[in-house]
Amino acid sequence: MSTASFKSFAFSRYFCIVTLGVALLVSPWTNARTLSLAIANAPVDTGEHKALMWWMGAIDQCTQGETKIKGYYLQSLVKLKDALSGVSAGIADIAIIAPGYDQAKLPLWYLSKSDIGSGNQYVTALAFGHIRERFPAIREEEKRNNIKYLSHYSVGPSVILSVNKPYMEPSDLDGAKVYFSSSWSRAANLQGWRVSTVNLSFPDLYSSMERGTIDAFTSYLPLIEAYKHNEIANYAVNPGIGQQMNLIAMNRGVWESLPVKSRECFDSLQPKLLLRLARAELDDSANAQKRLSGAEKYSMQFLEPDDKQKAAWNEGFEKANDEKVERLSKYNQHVAEINKAYLKEVGAVTEAVRQEGYPWEKK
Fold it and tell me: Closest by alpha carbon to 251, among 44, 86, 53, 112?
């Protein structure tokens, strides 16, 4: 090889190496970022989990690998009760938050957990989404807590699980020892239900019922199988009143550090995620009831109160709701106004669904 040819070869090789190095530096894959997502539940085969997995994949695809999400399950990153402080402080980039654990910090978001009205997951999720858009005070509450809203979803109404008999109305309690969720406990105290309430952590409910320490407890249909509560409970009564809402939020500093393209992807996918989660929660509840009703082993009876029995439950829940609004008003002046608007919107969406059906049912 001549000297000139060698120099030409060497220059070409050097040019290729430099070009490849520059390409790697500007490639979006070299700047790919993985965000942590704190999830309280196990990664089981539920519609809720599938919806979250779809969302993670959709973010990856939409951002072309620029931003990814990794789930941390079973409270391994932060405890559910600490989810707000964890994501606000940046311990978790994203977290699923139960506003009930931080009522003083999230009084407006805690209103999304309704005590009265429909327990339908789609209806309540859509209704509170409309209210969030309408009232800037809710978005200001998010900013004060250093979080960026991503989506929300309802896990549906509380059901009361029991062993020896179903509790179809408050008078059936008759001195029973029961674990109640917060709204049920408030209703029991304010309405004077003859029941002894106990304070337990959710994982302890199985052993407490098995030992006979409690006679009944409140849970949610999609959680019965996950916590194997059908092994120790024979009845599930669903009044269908009120429901539990969860918030999905990102640390605001993390949000602001993301590329514009990634932020646009999160925002554009929000309505689709809300719809998928709402449908998933409805399906999870219906499927759990169907499976457990016909199970060969550890089957359960699922019952719904009649109108008179439901009215007896609702009388207590209405008092609980009034007490909640009065208590939360100490933390935010907009509580009463937003609560009234939310319940009205729940009624409007309920009627829309009655007339038009769900979005996924339309051709």
Answer: 86
Residue 41 in tokens: 């539940």
d(CA 76, CA 146): 22
Backbone angles phi, psi at 36, to 5 degrees: -85, 140
SS3 305: coil
Residue 353, burial from CB neighbour count under 10 angstroms (0-12, 13-18, 19+): middle
**Other residues' Cβ atoms within 10 Å of the Cβ of residue 94:** 27
State the distance between the two ends of the chain, measured CA to CA, in whole angstroms: 72
What is the total residue count of the chain?
Answer: 363
Could you read off the pLDDT of 203-230 as tens digits, one per residue?
899 999 999 999 999 999 999 998 999 9
3-state secondary structure of 332: coil
233-260 in b/e burial notation, b at 16+ Cβ within 10 A?
bebbbbbbbbbbbbbbbbbbebbeebee
